[in-house]
Amino acid sequence: MPTAIESVETMSLAAPLDEPFGYAQAWVEDRTALLVRITTSDGTVGWGECWGPAAGTRETVTDFLAPRLVGRDPRDVTVIYDELVHHARAAYQSVVPYPAISGVDIALWDLCGKLRDASVAELLGGRRREEVHAYATGHYFRHGLDLEDQYGAITAEAAENAAALGAVKAKIGLSLLGYGPDDDVELVRRIRDAIGPDAMLMVDANYAYDTGTARRVGRALESLDVTWFEEPVPPTDEAGYVRLRDALDLRIAGGECHTPAGFDRLLAAGGLDIAQPDLCNVGGITAGTRIGQHAATTGVPVVPHVWGTGIALATSLQYIATLPSEPWLEFDRSPNPLRTAVTQESFAPAAAGQVTIPDRPGIGITVDEPTIEQFRTD
Ligand code: CA
After folding, report:
1. Residue 219 C-alpha to ligand 1 middle, in angstroms?
2. 123-369: CATH topology
3. Separation in Å, CA 150 to CA 139, 155, 167
4. What is the pLDDT of residues 18-27, one digit of tens each?
5. Which member of 133, 139, 294, 305 is catalytic?
6. Residue 14 host element (H or E)
7. Tag placement on the chain: N or C end, fewer CB within 10 Å?
8. 68 CA distance to ligand 1 centroid (A)?
9. Residue 230 Cα, ligand 1 centroid: separation in angstroms?
Protein backbone atom coordinates (compact mmCIF):
# COMPACT_ATOMS: atom_id res chain seq x y z
CA MET A 1 0.00 0.00 0.00
CA PRO A 2 1.54 3.35 -0.92
CA THR A 3 1.73 5.90 1.85
CA ALA A 4 -0.24 9.01 0.93
CA ILE A 5 0.06 12.55 2.21
CA GLU A 6 -3.01 13.36 4.27
CA SER A 7 -2.39 16.88 5.56
CA VAL A 8 -0.03 19.83 5.10
CA GLU A 9 -0.03 22.38 7.93
CA THR A 10 1.99 25.46 8.79
CA MET A 11 2.96 26.85 12.18
CA SER A 12 3.95 30.48 12.50
CA LEU A 13 6.16 31.24 15.51
CA ALA A 14 7.47 34.49 16.98
CA ALA A 15 9.65 35.37 19.96
CA PRO A 16 10.21 39.02 20.91
CA LEU A 17 13.76 40.16 21.68
CA ASP A 18 14.70 42.25 24.73
CA GLU A 19 17.00 44.33 22.52
CA PRO A 20 16.80 44.64 18.73
CA PHE A 21 20.00 44.02 16.76
CA GLY A 22 21.02 45.32 13.36
CA TYR A 23 22.85 44.31 10.19
CA ALA A 24 23.48 46.29 7.01
CA GLN A 25 19.88 46.11 5.76
CA ALA A 26 17.60 46.20 8.82
CA TRP A 27 17.00 45.94 12.54
CA VAL A 28 15.80 42.58 13.87
CA GLU A 29 13.04 43.23 16.43
CA ASP A 30 11.89 39.67 17.00
CA ARG A 31 12.76 36.17 15.89
CA THR A 32 10.23 34.32 13.80
CA ALA A 33 9.88 30.95 12.10
CA LEU A 34 7.44 29.30 9.72
CA LEU A 35 7.33 25.53 10.12
CA VAL A 36 5.70 22.98 7.81
CA ARG A 37 4.25 19.71 9.14
CA ILE A 38 3.21 17.05 6.65
CA THR A 39 1.35 13.96 7.89
CA THR A 40 0.80 10.75 5.93
CA SER A 41 -2.05 8.26 6.06
CA ASP A 42 -0.05 5.95 8.36
CA GLY A 43 0.52 8.78 10.85
CA THR A 44 4.15 9.52 9.96
CA VAL A 45 5.05 13.20 10.35
CA GLY A 46 7.68 15.16 8.43
CA TRP A 47 8.92 18.63 9.39
CA GLY A 48 10.27 21.50 7.33
CA GLU A 49 11.09 25.19 7.78
CA CYS A 50 10.69 28.17 5.47
CA TRP A 51 13.09 31.13 5.53
CA GLY A 52 11.69 34.64 5.89
CA PRO A 53 8.42 36.20 7.04
CA ALA A 54 5.37 33.98 7.43
CA ALA A 55 3.13 36.40 5.53
CA GLY A 56 2.70 35.21 1.97
CA THR A 57 4.76 32.04 2.40
CA ARG A 58 2.25 30.56 4.87
CA GLU A 59 -0.64 31.07 2.42
CA THR A 60 1.42 29.74 -0.48
CA VAL A 61 2.04 26.51 1.44
CA THR A 62 -1.51 25.99 2.70
CA ASP A 63 -3.54 27.34 -0.23
CA PHE A 64 -1.38 26.72 -3.30
CA LEU A 65 1.05 23.87 -2.59
CA ALA A 66 -0.95 21.72 -0.15
CA PRO A 67 -3.76 20.81 -2.61
CA ARG A 68 -1.05 19.49 -4.99
CA LEU A 69 0.45 17.33 -2.23
CA VAL A 70 -2.52 15.61 -0.63
CA GLY A 71 -2.79 12.01 -1.85
CA ARG A 72 0.80 11.89 -3.15
CA ASP A 73 3.48 9.48 -1.98
CA PRO A 74 6.18 11.59 -0.22
CA ARG A 75 8.85 9.20 -1.53
CA ASP A 76 8.33 10.85 -4.93
CA VAL A 77 9.97 13.95 -3.43
CA THR A 78 12.12 14.92 -6.41
CA VAL A 79 9.24 14.44 -8.86
CA ILE A 80 7.01 16.49 -6.58
CA TYR A 81 9.64 19.26 -6.28
CA ASP A 82 9.85 19.64 -10.06
CA GLU A 83 6.07 19.70 -10.36
CA LEU A 84 5.69 22.34 -7.65
CA VAL A 85 8.33 24.58 -9.23
CA HIS A 86 6.66 24.16 -12.63
CA HIS A 87 3.19 25.01 -11.29
CA ALA A 88 4.47 27.94 -9.25
CA ARG A 89 6.43 29.38 -12.16
CA ALA A 90 3.32 29.33 -14.34
CA ALA A 91 1.09 30.74 -11.61
CA TYR A 92 3.35 33.45 -10.22
CA GLN A 93 4.73 34.79 -13.50
CA SER A 94 8.23 33.30 -13.14
CA VAL A 95 8.68 34.46 -9.52
CA VAL A 96 8.83 31.03 -7.92
CA PRO A 97 8.03 31.13 -4.17
CA TYR A 98 11.13 29.15 -3.19
CA PRO A 99 10.86 29.66 0.61
CA ALA A 100 7.44 27.94 0.56
CA ILE A 101 8.71 25.12 -1.66
CA SER A 102 11.75 24.78 0.64
CA GLY A 103 9.68 24.05 3.74
CA VAL A 104 7.59 21.48 1.86
CA ASP A 105 10.63 19.82 0.27
CA ILE A 106 12.43 19.50 3.62
CA ALA A 107 9.33 17.97 5.23
CA LEU A 108 9.04 15.49 2.33
CA TRP A 109 12.68 14.45 2.70
CA ASP A 110 12.15 14.06 6.45
CA LEU A 111 9.18 11.80 5.67
CA CYS A 112 11.16 9.82 3.08
CA GLY A 113 13.81 9.09 5.68
CA LYS A 114 11.28 8.03 8.30
CA LEU A 115 9.41 5.82 5.82
CA ARG A 116 12.65 4.17 4.65
CA ASP A 117 14.26 4.11 8.13
CA ALA A 118 17.28 6.05 6.84
CA SER A 119 18.78 9.47 7.44
CA VAL A 120 18.45 12.02 4.64
CA ALA A 121 22.22 11.88 4.13
CA GLU A 122 21.97 8.12 3.52
CA LEU A 123 19.15 8.69 1.02
CA LEU A 124 21.35 11.26 -0.78
CA GLY A 125 24.08 8.69 -1.27
CA GLY A 126 25.93 8.46 2.03
CA ARG A 127 27.79 10.34 4.70
CA ARG A 128 31.26 11.74 4.14
CA ARG A 129 31.64 12.90 7.77
CA GLU A 130 30.15 12.34 11.21
CA GLU A 131 30.73 15.85 12.53
CA VAL A 132 31.44 19.36 11.33
CA HIS A 133 33.16 22.39 12.82
CA ALA A 134 30.88 25.33 13.63
CA TYR A 135 31.71 28.99 13.15
CA ALA A 136 29.94 31.76 15.06
CA THR A 137 27.56 34.13 13.35
CA GLY A 138 26.60 37.11 15.50
CA HIS A 139 28.41 40.39 16.16
CA TYR A 140 25.42 42.45 15.07
CA PHE A 141 25.04 46.19 15.59
CA ARG A 142 23.64 47.42 18.89
CA HIS A 143 20.83 49.87 19.27
CA GLY A 144 21.59 53.25 20.82
CA LEU A 145 25.39 53.00 21.12
CA ASP A 146 27.89 55.46 19.67
CA LEU A 147 30.62 54.16 17.38
CA GLU A 148 33.25 53.54 20.08
CA ASP A 149 30.74 51.66 22.21
CA GLN A 150 29.61 49.65 19.15
CA TYR A 151 33.20 48.64 18.57
CA GLY A 152 33.62 47.74 22.24
CA ALA A 153 30.47 45.60 22.47
CA ILE A 154 31.00 43.81 19.15
CA THR A 155 34.68 43.03 19.69
CA ALA A 156 33.95 41.68 23.18
CA GLU A 157 31.32 39.34 21.71
CA ALA A 158 33.70 38.28 18.94
CA ALA A 159 36.48 37.52 21.43
CA GLU A 160 34.10 35.36 23.44
CA ASN A 161 32.89 33.48 20.34
CA ALA A 162 36.43 33.03 19.05
CA ALA A 163 37.44 31.55 22.38
CA ALA A 164 34.48 29.15 22.17
CA LEU A 165 34.65 28.10 18.49
CA GLY A 166 37.88 29.48 17.03
CA ALA A 167 36.00 30.92 14.05
CA VAL A 168 33.76 34.01 13.82
CA LYS A 169 31.96 36.02 11.16
CA ALA A 170 31.89 39.82 11.44
CA LYS A 171 29.00 41.91 10.18
CA ILE A 172 29.80 45.12 8.33
CA GLY A 173 27.58 47.74 6.73
CA LEU A 174 27.48 50.31 9.53
CA SER A 175 25.72 52.60 7.04
CA LEU A 176 22.59 51.36 8.86
CA LEU A 177 23.76 53.62 11.70
CA GLY A 178 24.99 56.43 9.45
CA TYR A 179 28.68 55.47 9.36
CA GLY A 180 30.85 54.75 6.33
CA PRO A 181 32.92 51.96 4.78
CA ASP A 182 36.11 53.11 6.54
CA ASP A 183 34.31 52.57 9.84
CA ASP A 184 33.44 49.06 8.65
CA VAL A 185 37.09 48.31 7.95
CA GLU A 186 38.04 49.69 11.36
CA LEU A 187 35.49 47.35 12.97
CA VAL A 188 37.05 44.33 11.25
CA ARG A 189 40.53 45.51 12.25
CA ARG A 190 39.47 45.75 15.88
CA ILE A 191 37.81 42.33 15.75
CA ARG A 192 41.00 40.82 14.33
CA ASP A 193 42.97 42.45 17.18
CA ALA A 194 40.46 41.13 19.75
CA ILE A 195 40.36 37.52 18.51
CA GLY A 196 44.08 37.22 17.80
CA PRO A 197 45.92 35.98 14.70
CA ASP A 198 44.93 32.32 14.94
CA ALA A 199 41.14 32.58 14.94
CA MET A 200 39.35 32.28 11.62
CA LEU A 201 37.60 35.52 10.60
CA MET A 202 34.95 35.87 7.93
CA VAL A 203 33.32 39.18 6.92
CA ASP A 204 29.69 39.58 5.83
CA ALA A 205 28.50 42.84 4.25
CA ASN A 206 24.88 41.77 3.64
CA TYR A 207 25.24 43.62 0.30
CA ALA A 208 25.85 47.02 1.89
CA TYR A 209 27.96 48.25 -1.04
CA ASP A 210 28.09 49.02 -4.72
CA THR A 211 30.93 47.31 -6.58
CA GLY A 212 33.36 50.21 -6.30
CA THR A 213 32.94 50.54 -2.55
CA ALA A 214 33.10 46.77 -2.10
CA ARG A 215 36.41 46.72 -4.02
CA ARG A 216 37.84 49.44 -1.76
CA VAL A 217 36.69 47.66 1.42
CA GLY A 218 37.88 44.30 0.07
CA ARG A 219 41.39 45.69 -0.60
CA ALA A 220 41.58 46.84 3.01
CA LEU A 221 40.39 43.42 4.22
CA GLU A 222 43.13 41.62 2.26
CA SER A 223 45.69 42.42 4.97
CA LEU A 224 43.46 41.24 7.85
CA ASP A 225 43.58 37.51 7.06
CA VAL A 226 39.90 37.33 6.17
CA THR A 227 38.81 33.83 5.10
CA TRP A 228 35.97 35.09 2.92
CA PHE A 229 34.10 38.30 2.00
CA GLU A 230 30.38 37.47 2.00
CA GLU A 231 27.63 39.20 0.01
CA PRO A 232 29.70 42.27 -0.87
CA VAL A 233 27.12 43.52 -3.39
CA PRO A 234 23.39 42.95 -4.00
CA PRO A 235 22.40 39.46 -5.16
CA THR A 236 21.09 40.93 -8.41
CA ASP A 237 24.55 42.31 -9.29
CA GLU A 238 25.97 39.08 -10.65
CA ALA A 239 28.49 40.98 -12.79
CA GLY A 240 29.69 42.71 -9.60
CA TYR A 241 30.48 39.33 -8.04
CA VAL A 242 32.58 38.37 -11.05
CA ARG A 243 34.45 41.69 -11.11
CA LEU A 244 35.19 41.55 -7.37
CA ARG A 245 36.42 37.99 -7.59
CA ASP A 246 38.82 39.06 -10.34
CA ALA A 247 39.94 42.23 -8.56
CA LEU A 248 40.47 41.03 -4.99
CA ASP A 249 42.93 38.67 -3.36
CA LEU A 250 40.06 37.47 -1.17
CA ARG A 251 37.52 34.67 -1.47
CA ILE A 252 34.08 35.92 -2.49
CA ALA A 253 31.15 34.13 -0.82
CA GLY A 254 27.41 34.44 -1.31
CA GLY A 255 24.18 32.74 -2.15
CA GLU A 256 21.76 32.99 0.77
CA CYS A 257 19.56 35.32 -1.33
CA HIS A 258 19.99 33.49 -4.66
CA THR A 259 17.54 31.23 -6.45
CA PRO A 260 18.63 27.98 -8.14
CA ALA A 261 18.77 29.84 -11.48
CA GLY A 262 20.82 32.60 -9.84
CA PHE A 263 23.32 30.00 -8.58
CA ASP A 264 23.57 28.48 -12.03
CA ARG A 265 24.40 31.88 -13.53
CA LEU A 266 26.84 32.88 -10.79
CA LEU A 267 28.68 29.56 -10.88
CA ALA A 268 28.83 29.55 -14.68
CA ALA A 269 30.12 33.14 -14.73
CA GLY A 270 32.80 32.43 -12.10
CA GLY A 271 31.35 34.80 -9.50
CA LEU A 272 31.82 32.69 -6.37
CA ASP A 273 34.68 31.17 -4.40
CA ILE A 274 32.25 29.76 -1.81
CA ALA A 275 28.59 28.93 -2.47
CA GLN A 276 26.18 29.48 0.43
CA PRO A 277 22.70 28.12 -0.41
CA ASP A 278 20.19 28.31 2.43
CA LEU A 279 18.12 25.14 2.27
CA CYS A 280 15.08 26.87 3.80
CA ASN A 281 15.19 29.55 1.09
CA VAL A 282 16.65 28.10 -2.11
CA GLY A 283 14.21 25.23 -2.63
CA GLY A 284 15.02 22.73 0.10
CA ILE A 285 17.21 19.65 0.00
CA THR A 286 16.38 18.90 -3.65
CA ALA A 287 17.53 22.32 -4.86
CA GLY A 288 20.47 22.36 -2.44
CA THR A 289 21.70 19.01 -3.73
CA ARG A 290 21.57 20.17 -7.35
CA ILE A 291 23.41 23.40 -6.50
CA GLY A 292 25.98 21.35 -4.61
CA GLN A 293 26.55 19.19 -7.67
CA HIS A 294 26.94 22.23 -9.94
CA ALA A 295 29.34 23.81 -7.44
CA ALA A 296 31.39 20.62 -7.27
CA THR A 297 31.76 20.48 -11.05
CA THR A 298 33.07 24.07 -11.06
CA GLY A 299 35.39 23.45 -8.09
CA VAL A 300 33.53 25.74 -5.71
CA PRO A 301 33.18 24.61 -2.07
CA VAL A 302 29.74 24.81 -0.45
CA VAL A 303 29.25 26.22 3.06
CA PRO A 304 25.48 26.49 3.51
CA HIS A 305 23.87 29.54 5.04
CA VAL A 306 21.95 28.58 8.18
CA TRP A 307 19.47 30.78 10.04
CA GLY A 308 16.52 29.51 12.01
CA THR A 309 15.36 26.81 14.37
CA GLY A 310 16.68 23.33 15.09
CA ILE A 311 14.85 22.17 11.95
CA ALA A 312 17.00 24.44 9.75
CA LEU A 313 20.11 23.31 11.62
CA ALA A 314 19.26 19.60 11.36
CA THR A 315 18.46 19.90 7.64
CA SER A 316 21.75 21.68 7.00
CA LEU A 317 23.66 19.02 8.94
CA GLN A 318 22.27 16.23 6.71
CA TYR A 319 23.32 18.23 3.65
CA ILE A 320 26.74 18.99 5.13
CA ALA A 321 27.25 15.25 5.71
CA THR A 322 27.11 14.71 1.94
CA LEU A 323 29.24 17.61 0.61
CA PRO A 324 32.47 16.65 -1.15
CA SER A 325 34.30 19.84 -0.10
CA GLU A 326 35.22 20.66 3.51
CA PRO A 327 32.16 22.48 4.85
CA TRP A 328 31.60 24.45 8.03
CA LEU A 329 28.37 24.80 9.98
CA GLU A 330 27.13 28.37 10.28
CA PHE A 331 26.00 28.58 13.89
CA ASP A 332 24.03 31.69 14.81
CA ARG A 333 24.95 32.77 18.34
CA SER A 334 22.72 35.87 18.37
CA PRO A 335 19.61 35.88 20.60
CA ASN A 336 16.90 33.49 19.37
CA PRO A 337 14.61 31.66 21.83
CA LEU A 338 13.27 29.58 18.92
CA ARG A 339 16.65 28.07 18.10
CA THR A 340 16.43 25.64 21.00
CA ALA A 341 12.65 25.63 21.62
CA VAL A 342 11.46 23.81 18.51
CA THR A 343 13.53 20.63 18.70
CA GLN A 344 14.65 18.54 21.64
CA GLU A 345 18.12 18.50 20.06
CA SER A 346 20.07 21.77 20.47
CA PHE A 347 22.98 21.02 18.08
CA ALA A 348 25.13 23.23 20.31
CA PRO A 349 28.82 22.89 19.40
CA ALA A 350 30.99 20.82 21.73
CA ALA A 351 33.97 22.34 23.52
CA ALA A 352 36.20 21.88 20.47
CA GLY A 353 33.60 23.55 18.21
CA GLN A 354 32.37 20.30 16.63
CA VAL A 355 28.72 19.46 16.01
CA THR A 356 27.75 15.80 15.63
CA ILE A 357 25.60 15.02 12.59
CA PRO A 358 22.54 12.95 13.54
CA ASP A 359 22.09 9.58 11.84
CA ARG A 360 18.52 8.96 12.90
CA PRO A 361 15.79 8.62 10.24
CA GLY A 362 14.90 11.71 8.23
CA ILE A 363 16.55 14.92 9.36
CA GLY A 364 17.01 13.38 12.81
CA ILE A 365 14.95 15.62 15.05
CA THR A 366 12.29 15.32 17.72
CA VAL A 367 9.98 18.33 17.62
CA ASP A 368 8.82 19.66 20.97
CA GLU A 369 5.21 20.47 20.09
CA PRO A 370 4.02 21.58 23.58
CA THR A 371 6.85 24.14 23.73
CA ILE A 372 6.11 25.35 20.19
CA GLU A 373 2.57 26.24 21.27
CA GLN A 374 3.94 29.02 23.50
CA PHE A 375 5.36 30.81 20.44
CA ARG A 376 2.52 30.31 17.96
CA THR A 377 1.03 33.37 16.31
CA ASP A 378 -1.49 31.58 14.07
CA1 CA B 1 25.13 36.24 5.44
Report:
1. 20
2. TIM Barrel (3.20.20)
3. 10, 8, 20
4. 999 999 999 9
5. 305
6. strand 5-23
7. N
8. 33
9. 6
